[in-house]
Amino acid sequence: MSEKLEITFALDKPTKNTIRYAEMSDNPVVGTLYVQKSAIEKLENPKSIKVTIEAA
To answer: Residue 40: enclosing H or E segment and its boundaries?
Structure first.
């Protein structure tokens, strides 16, 4: 079974059409994540998000 990576991101700042999130880690895997505003609005504009990465 493959390992999963769960990464937490904190709201950094909005841009024109996206919301920028910064990874909350001393050893970043992704770094900065940009998510479309329309998608974040569906989640009620969270201050932090969690992303899971696993092999397909």
So the answer is: helix 37-42
